Amino acid sequence: MKATVVRGIGTDIVEVARIQHLYRRWGQSFLDRVYTKEEQSYALAARGKARMCRLAARYAAKEAVVKALGIGFRKGSWRDITVLVLPSGQPVIDIKGHFAEEAARRRIGGFHLSLSHTNENAVAFVVAVGECSGGP
């Protein structure tokens, strides 16, 4: 088994009310600009405030991934970063396009993600990891 190293970290916090405001103002066009169909289905399957909390957590995760990569959103699409949930409940990151290219360039092979939220805020913490070069 090869050793892994931390190649970047990122964290972000989002006010749930901000996401709710954007959703109320822009509706489906906001969802389609920021979230994949899988993310929308997962979030909208919840009821009440939990819907907006799930959306806010995913928004924070996307921001945290970009920070862990050490880049911004100047290139790429919000939908090129997807937050999925394993059957165990563990959230995971899937990237494509510009962000996958940047990850490969920076020798990042994967991400660890932690999400949490209250009714008011959602927070995401991301650790970008890659194989250790050289050594045992």
How does this model look, in words?
The protein is α+β, with helices and mostly antiparallel strands and 136 residues long. The chain has a single domain, classed as Ribosomal Protein L22, Chain A, CATH 3.90.470. The chain has a three-stranded antiparallel beta sheet with strand order 1-5-4. The chain has a two-stranded antiparallel ribbon with strand order 2-3. A hairpin with a 3-residue loop joins strand 4 and strand 5. Helix 1 crosses helix 4 and helix 3 packs antiparallel against helix 4. It is globular and about 45 Å long.
Q: Can you tag this structure with a few keywords?
A:
two-stranded antiparallel sheet; 30% strand; globular; three-stranded antiparallel β-sheet; 136 residues; Ribosomal Protein L22, Chain A; alpha+beta
**Total DSSP E strands:** 5
Distance, first to last CA: 10 Å
Helical coverage, percent range: 40-55%
Spatial order of the strands in the main sheet? 1-5-4
**Largest β sheet strand count, sense and barrel closure:** 3 strands, antiparallel
Mean pLDDT: 94
Beta-strand fraction estimate: 25-35%
Runs with pLDDT <50, length 5+? none
How many helices does DSSP assign?
5
Query: What is the second-level CATH architecture?
Result: Alpha-Beta Complex
Top CATH class: Alpha Beta
User: Secondary-structure element order, as H and E?
Assistant: EHHHHEEHEE
- Morphology call: globular
Protein topology:
Layout: E1 4-15, H1 16-26, H2 28-34, H3 37-44, H4 49-69, E2 81-85, E3 91-95, H5 97-105, E4 110-117, E5 121-131
Antiparallel strand pairs: 1-5, 2-3, 4-5
Helix pairs in contact: 1-2, 1-4, 3-4
